[in-house]
Amino acid sequence: MSTAWHSELRQERSRFMETIGELTDDEIQNARTLCAPRTPRDVLAHVAGLGRGLGRNREIPGTVARALFREGVIWSWPFGRKLTRYRVIPSTPGGGRRGRGQVVRGTTEALSMWLAGRGASPMNSPSIRSTTCERLQLHVC
């Protein structure tokens, strides 16, 4: 059963996708958003993670996985410099072994999100084991 708000949400999703499709490469990389200092590229990476949070898994193309992992590595520095304390080992294509210290294993996508600060709480607790790591299906060795 669809309600009026459900229809509006679907229309807004269509408008969002239309806007994204109209952006130039330069705008995707450099334009301002309401989520300053995030660029449209950062916002898209965030939105792309929505399905995982809903428990929906999907195959991620290699080029996308590499881009996500690269962004995760870059964003890891403002969020606790994780690669100075943890060695990440992706279990899926797209990422490479990085860092030093305690080993953390997971999919390239999950490690990318964790590195970029998704659920940064493990850095603030005595142990990396947390709800965030369980949700992202990261394994600490």
Structure report:
With 141 residues, the protein is an alpha+beta fold. The protein has a domain at 49-140. Helix content is 48%, strand content 10%. The protein has a four-stranded mixed β-sheet with strand order 2-1-3-4. Strand 1 (86-90) and strand 2 (98-99) form a beta hairpin. Helix 5 runs parallel beside helix 6 (108-115). It is globular and about 50 Å long. The termini are far apart. The model is unreliable at 120-129 (pLDDT under 50).
Could you provide a short overview of the structure?
This protein is α+β, with helices and mostly antiparallel strands and 141 residues long.
Number of β-strand runs: 4
**Distance from first to last alpha carbon:** 47 Å
Beta-strand residue percentage? 5-15%
Regarding quaternary structure, what we see is single chain
Number of helices: 7
Sheet with the most strands: spatial strand order: 2-1-3-4
Q: Based on CA inertia axes, which overall geometry fits?
A: globular
Mean pLDDT: 77
Keyphrases for this structure?
single chain; 141 residues; alpha+beta; 4-stranded mixed sheet; 48% helix; globular
